[in-house]
Amino acid sequence: MHSLEQLKQSLEGAGQAHILQFWPELSDLERDAFLQDLSQLDMTRLREHCEGAARAAAAPSGSLDQHLEPVPPASIGSVRKSDSKALTEWEHEGLLQISQNRVGVLLLAGGQGTRLNVQYPKGMYNVGLPSSKTLYQIQAERIHKIQQLTDRKYGSKSTVPWYIMTSEFTLAPTEKFFKENHYFGLEPSDIVMFEQRMIPAVTFDGKVILQGKGKIAMAPDGNGGLYQALVDNKVLEDMKKRGVEYLHVYCVDNILVKMADPVFVGFCVSKGADCGAKVVEKACPAEAVGVVCRVRGVSQVVEYSEIQQETAELRGAGGELVYNAGNICNHFFTRAFLQDVAETFEGQLKQHVALKKVPYVDSCGNQVKPTKPNGIKMEKFVFDVFPFSRNFVAFEVVREDEFSPLKNADGAATDTPTTARNSLLTQHCRWATAAGAALCDEHGNTLPAASASAGDSAPVQCEISPLVSYFGEGLEMLKGRTLQTPLILDEEKAKELQAQ
Ligand SMILES: CC(=O)N[C@H]1[C@@H](OP(=O)(O)O)O[C@H](CO)[C@@H](O)[C@@H]1O
């Protein structure tokens, strides 16, 4: 650890002497903790970071809009437009890769859940399903199921390792939650948690913000902090050791996410892609999703916060949105590509500026909760590596089956616990009905199939455990049955029905 004198000098050199302004007021304990935090800062980097943030906020990089063009539809693979033969082939390819232990999943779970307004990791959120399962549990069970489906098909004993990128905010509670829940039945050694870096929030004039008298305001470095974190935590070495060649990266909040989706993996592998992204058709021009498009001829994502409204609203001759390939934060990477990024491109990743309200102590030592943005957070985006890819592919999937993110607290118009819960229940009603079941209410009245597939209204309470079905398969035991709702079709209930 540095001595106080050394630290003072180097902070002065970095233009950040104010950080120690309240030092005389701190207790011994607070001083120790603060000194410990500060001695981890690289002062040259700190100076660059602060100056860079202030510069970037003062002169935002010009809009990219004039350089955009859509990805030609012909170069986007599509679930809707492909015949069942192609889909089956991709699925087989994906399952084959899984059976050879060549596929891993990586969860981006470092976010603070600010919009959702929770103080704990988003993955621990219970959206109010009949089973009360959290997002983490649903995801764990899907991993379990895809391993099982693979093993049944190929007679293998497959493992899909689960890499979980957390942050200083989410690591400890996530670890505790997994432990308390016995890793949801997965092998603990196949779950690898690691932490992304945190970087200081900075004022508009380039000064680190003090969150407390002995604490600087830190924020995770964006989901694109992944690439630095892969290096810091030797994750690529771990993948290599396990023989994992392909990684499905996804963000924590999509309740419909198909972990290690064999169709997507199989599609990407059979196209020889090193990098891929799932997209859905955008619901409306203002939907808060990035768009996969080309910028100066190169495929990449332009984030919703960085596209101009006129561009987002552009429509083609048939009335369709010109930029309608909505990014759902489900990416495919080969290990070789990630290695290239780690070795060559990480330093070139773009830094995005976010202006945020950051609570701080003012120069008189008062705690202030700002009402308008006062700080700059710099973030990297996970998709900003796409331009470095040699063979990028996009794959369009069906929204109702694959995308319903949890971003906001109930009361907001979109992407809430209610919309997430409804999407899942509606999907499960569709699966049950397609398998030949009729659903009835507690009085025995048959519920019309239409209400089982209604969009926003409260759907029929039919929840199918991922341990029973991964994407609607294996529900033959429901054929010809009338089932009373609320229904939780878990493994036990499924066995019971099978035996009848
Ligand atoms: C940096 C990044 O990955 N942004 C993603 C991510 O948005 P957030 O608002 O950061 O959750 O998820 C969206 C899909 O839910 C996707 O459309 C968007 O491009």
From TrEMBL:
Gene3D superfamilies: 2.10.10.100, Spore Coat Polysaccharide Biosynthesis Protein SpsA, Chain A
GO annotation (BP), single: UDP-N-acetylglucosamine biosynthetic process
Domain of life: Eukaryota
GO molecular function: UDP-N-acetylglucosamine diphosphorylase activity
InterPro entries xrefs: Nucleotide-diphossugar_trans, UDP-sugar_pyrophosphorylase, UDPGP_fam
Keywords, alphabetical: Nucleotidyltransferase, Transferase
SUPFAM superfamilies per record: Nucleotide-diphospho-sugar transferases (SSF53448)
Listed CDD domains: UDPGlcNAc_PPase
Region spans: Disordered: 57-79
Protein family per UniProt: Belongs to the UDPGP type 1 family.
Protein name in the entry: UDP-N-acetylhexosamine pyrophosphorylase-like protein 1
Organism expressing this protein natively: Eleginops maclovinus (Patagonian blennie)
